[in-house]
Design goal:
The chain is α+β, with helices and mostly antiparallel strands and 306 residues long. Helix content is 55%, strand content 10%. Helix 2 runs parallel beside helix 5 and helix 4 crosses helix 7.
């Protein structure tokens, strides 16, 4: 009877895994053969997608059952080439029951455009994901990359892989997938907002309240993992931006002095060019004003935008 019950449980988990693979493919979060999905069937075994298989065409029988040491327990295809990363994650985080490596296109687009995902803009994202980990593009060897990713996973349920994709985890395959959808939805909103105008982030107070709510919902274990470091880098950058914005206010004596020095430096630079002898004093002044204005517009745009 016990063996039959275990078999039924595994059958249901295979169905769930197939459902999520197909859903991720249909939603465009993986492209055909990309990515890898796995879930725990017990404390000692996992089901994982096979290597070189289309995620929209997988059948329940295709998933490979292995123990947490990577030993294959069922015959069939070779497991995903990401197997060692999945296993390392499960060992590092016993609370993890599912692991998804996907290639959400808008998330990847943000990394290529150099846009920081961790701008707290949507309250639900802050509560659901907290701060998202970021793994920069690297040419390190596979073992080093896996070790670094596993370390990031210890305090994050979602990681963005620079120019590549994402990793999301959860206490079941549906939660891991939900985290993936939230990640891509937030990236889409951030991308569209950046095109429309200024991205207005949540305030420090709002962020603190949402983090407190997150820890109340998900419990002390998560709070202990994340500690009080969520959005620390973002709030520091925001403080610097506010300071620079204050210094560069048009009525500020500091700004007026910096403006004057920049204008003088630009004039001196123009004087050293071969064209300076062909220009009148008024033309030089005009060019200097335009260059100085362009410079400060760039600075203000970079450092005063939230």
């Amino acid at each position: 009877m016990h063996a039959l019950t275990e078999n039924l449980t595994e059958t249901k988990l295979r169905q769930d895994l197939k459902t999520i693979c197909l859903l991720a493919y249909n939603k465009g979060l993986v492209s055909g053969f990309d990515g890898s999905f796995s879930l725990k069937t017990s404390d000692n075994s996992i089901l994982i997608t096979p290597t070189n298989t289309h995620k929209g065409l997988l059948e329940e029988k295709d998933f490979i059952l292995l123990d947490l040491n990577g030993n294959i327990l069922t015959n069939g295809k070779e497991p995903s080439e990401h197997l060692s990363l999945h296993l390392a994650a499960y060992k590092a985080r016993p609370d993890i029951k599912a692991f998804i490596h996907a290639h959400p296109p808008i998330v990847v687009s943000l990394t290529i455009a150099g846009i920081d995902f961790n701008q707290p803009i949507i309250p639900n994202t802050v509560i659901s994901l907290g701060e998202v980990g970021f793994f920069p593009y690297t040419n390190s060897d596979k073992d080093t990359e896996e070790s670094q990713l596993t370390e990031i996973l210890k305090s994050h349920d979602a990681i963005i892989l620079d120019k590549h994709g994402s990793i999301t985890v959860g206490n079941d395959i549906f939660t891991a997938y939900e985290n993936l959808e939230i990640l891509e939805f937030t990236a889409k909103v951030l991308c569209q907002a950046s095109q429309i105008g200024e991205v207005k982030t949540l305030s420090d107070k709002e962020i603190a309240e949402l983090i407190n709510e997150r820890h109340k919902i998900y419990g002390k274990d998560l709070q202990d993992r994340e500690k009080n470091n969520l959005f620390h880098d973002f709030t520091q950058k925001l403080t610097v931006k506010k300071l620079i914005s204050k210094v560069l206010e048009s009525e500020s004596p500091v700004f007026q002095r910096v403006l004057s020095l920049t204008h003088e430096l630009t004039i001196n630079t123009i004087e050293k060019t071969s064209y300076s002898t062909k220009m009148s004093k008024e033309e030089k002044e005009q060019i200097s004003r335009e260059l100085t204005g362009s410079f400060f517009n760039m600075i203000l745009g970079k450092f005063t935008r939230k």
